[in-house]
Amino acid sequence: MKIAIIGIGGVGGYFGGKLAKTSHHVTFVVRGDNLQAIRERGLQVRSIYGDFIVRPDKVTDAVSDLDTPDLVLLAVKSWQVAEIASTLKPFLAEHSLVLPLQNGADNVEKLLEVLPAKNVLSGLCKIISYVEGPGQIHHQAFHPQVIYGYPDNRIDGRLRAVKAVFDEAKVDNSIAQDINLEVWRKYTFITTLSGMGALTRMPVGVLRSDEYLRNMMLQTAQEIKMVANAKGIALNDFDVERVMESIDKQDSATTASMQRDMMQGKPSELENFNGYVMREGLRLGIPVPVNTLIYRLLLPMEEQARHY
Fold first, then answer.
1. Cα separation of 17 and 104, whole Å?
2. Are residues 185 and 168 in the same domain?
3. Strand 25-29 vs strand 58-60: parallel, antiparallel, or unpaired?
4. Looking at the structure, do residues 93 and 210 belong to the same domain, yes or no?
5. Distance CA 98, CA 96 (A)
């Protein structure tokens, strides 16, 4: 199988690195300092499960250099999905599958605005990893897992072939019974943690131990559940409880990627997290005052980061 990994950050670097250890033909599409570093020294992954170095079959900064891929792992940021999909479209075949792994609830919607439905999967991953330096990925915590499926939850030979590839790479993976629900479950967790973390600039240990902040996170999750239900996604109160339980299980020093980006003055996924909840709430007539407050308070910092 010909596999393309677009975006070699914490997610693309780890899972792309695992796939590059298989017998399949793997291409990394990467920019900046990572490009030359990987070409010269390979991709170096530090992991809680053991370190490794891989040299993919091809490393490029141009989607146009791709051979027609059978599988594309899309590991860019949420706001880059539509643009990358447009660039990628001419190089896809009938059988090609694009699997988005970034955070956010509407990545599939963005893909389907550009790509034919036959080429689009939905998915998510669970991992805590980041770029430690050029060509260097640090998998710091959390058991890595990929969950995926067609948006309509059908199963076919192409999907089973994807599973076989992940199995060969020794990546914990599963075909979801309801991928849309799974995406929203993760989205609820990451948006709940990210917004309050970015506002306070404090790690999760501080957020969950402060009664007021903890209640704000709970309200954030409850509002997301109401929006999801209005969109036909079967999130329930138990899912909200699981979000809070997951927050309680995190290492006390944990911070979310959106929080880290904002603290470093970088563009973040604010629009795709609390901003998306606010806009969908307005569209659907669902009051979401906490998500709106978080979004509005963080927006000036986001706009400043994007102008620079």
1. 23
2. no
3. parallel
4. no
5. 7
